[in-house]
Amino acid sequence: MKILTILGARPQFIKAASLSREIQKHDEIQEVIVHTGQHYDANMSDIFFEEMQIPKPDYFLGIGGKSHGAMTGQMMQMIEEVALKEKPDWVIVYGDTDSTLAGALVAAKLHVKLAHVEAGLRSFNMKMPEEVNRILTDRVSDILFCPSDAAVQNLKNEGFENFTCKIVKSGDIMQEGAMFYKNFARKPSCDIKNDFILCTIHRAENTDDEVRLRNIFEALKRIGNEKQVILPLHPRTKKTVENLKLNIQNLTLIDPVGYLEMIWLIDNCSLVMTDSGGLQKEAYFFEKPCITLRDETEWVELVECGANILAGADKEKILEAYKNYKSLTTDKLPQNLYGGGNASQKIVQYLSEY
Ligand code: UDP
Asked: Which of 23, 84, 146, 264 has the fewest beta carbons closer than 10 A?
C-alpha cells in the first residue's frame, strides 16, 4: 500500500511524526511525503524534521508566503503531478491549512482515496481560512478520522452520515506525540524564571486585526509586570508587532522553538495563553490551565470541563481570566477526552483493512 502524505505547516509536521513512526512498523506500507513549503524556514520546518526524526520529504514544492489563492492553486498543480507519478492508494491530509485543502482537492479529482486526520472540527466562524479549509476537505474525504466526540457530532449534524464517507473516532494524534517527545524535552537557552507563562499568538484573526492585537499586547504587558511571559514569536506576529511598534517591554520574546523545547516550556509553565489550536490540547495533556485568546474554539470539551477559558482579544476579559486562572480545573480533568493516545495505530490499522 502506498500513502501520499501532504504536509506544509508546523502543526502538520508534529502530527505526521507520530503517523510516520507507526507506518514504519509496517513493511507492506510505503509512505511518500510531499512538503508543500507553506512553512519553510529553519525554525518553522527543518528543526521539526531533524529533532522529531520525521522521514525527509520525497518532494519539496517550495510554495510559501503567497496569498491563499496563489498558494492553493500552485500546490494543487504540483501535488497533482506528484500524485499522477506516484499513483498512491491513499492521500493523507492533516488539519486545516491551504496544503490540506490542496491535497484534498487533488485526491478527490483524481479519484484517489482520501483520509483526513483531525476531521470534524468546527469553529463555526466562516471568516477563518482554517474553517473553510476543514469543511471543504471533510466533504471530499473517504475517511474522516475524528479526534473527539464533538468532532464526530459536528459531522453528524452536517449530514455526513448520508454521504459515502466513513466517520471514525481515532482520537487525537497529537496526544501520543506529546507523550513520546516528553522524554526528549529540552530547556530553551533563554533566561527562564521559576514561575512563568507560556504564550503564543499567530492566528490571522489576531495578527491581521490591529485592535485585537493591541488589546492582547496591552493585557500581556500588565500581566508581564507580575509574572514572566515567554512568547515564541511566529514570523507573522513578529512582522505586525514591529510594524505597529507594540510595547513589548516586560515580555520575553524569543524565536519560534522546536518541538522538544516547546514541550519543555509547556511542561514547566504555570499557565498557557494562546490562540493556537494544538497548544490548547497540549496544555490539557500536561494538566496546565489555558486562557484562549480567541472568541471560539474547536476544542469545546476543554472549556466545558473547566480547563480552558475563552477570553477573546478583549483586554479586560483577558485580565479577568488571568486573575481567575488558578480556579481552572487541572488536576481532576476527565482522562480520555481525546482517546487513549493510540490514534496513529488506529489510523494505520483502519487504512490497511479498508
Ligand atoms: N509549536 C512549536 N514551537 C513554537 C510554537 C508552537 O513547536 O514556537 C507547536 C505547538 O506546541 C503545537 C503546534 O506547534 O504543537 C501548534 O502549531 P500552531 O500553533 O502553529 O498551529 P495550530 O495548532 O493553531 O494549528
From this structure: 84
In a domain, 177, yes or no: no
Three-state secondary-structure class, residue 46: helix
**Mean pLDDT, rounded, for 164-174:** 97
- Is 218 in the same domain as 238? yes
Mean pLDDT along residues 58-80: 96
Residue 180 lies in a domain: no
Is a pLDDT exceeding 90 seen at residue 331? Answer: no
Tell which atom from ligand 1 comes closest to the C-alpha of 95.
Answer: 25
| Mean pLDDT, range 113-139, rounded to an integer | 97
* CATH number of residue 113's parent domain: 3.40.50.2000
Q: How many domains, the chain?
A: 2
The domain of 8 spans: 2-172+339-353
Residues 294 and 220 placed together within one structural domain of the fold: yes
Sheet containing 143-146, strands listed edge to edge, beginning at the edge strand earlier in sequence: 59-60, 30-35, 2-7, 90-94, 113-117, 143-146, 166-169
Of 40, 276, 293, 294, the residue with max ligand 1 atoms within 8 A of its CB, to mutate for a pocket test, comes to: 276
pLDDT exceeds cutoff 80 at 32 = yes
With the most atoms of ligand 1 within 8 angstroms of its CB, the residue from 200, 253, 293, 299 to mutate is 200
Within a domain: residue 226? yes
* pLDDT tens, position by position, 35-49: 999 988 888 899 999
For residue 245, what pLDDT band results from cuts at 50, 70 and 90?
Answer: very high
Residue 144 CA, ligand 1 centroid: distance in Å: 22
Determine the residue of 10, 46, 285 to mutate for testing ligand 1's pocket, defined as the one with the most ligand atoms within 8 A of the Cβ atom. 10
Q: 138 — phi, psi (to 5°)? A: -55, -40
**153 and 211: one domain?**
no
Cα(178) to centroid(ligand 1), Å: 12
Predicted TM-score (pTM) of the model is 0.96
**β-strand pairing of 290-292 with 308-310:** parallel
Task: Compute, in angstroms, the gap from residue 279 CA to the centroid of ligand 1.
Answer: 6
pLDDT digit string (tens) for 214-237? 999 999 999 999 999 999 999 999
CA of 10 to the centre of ligand 1 (A): 6
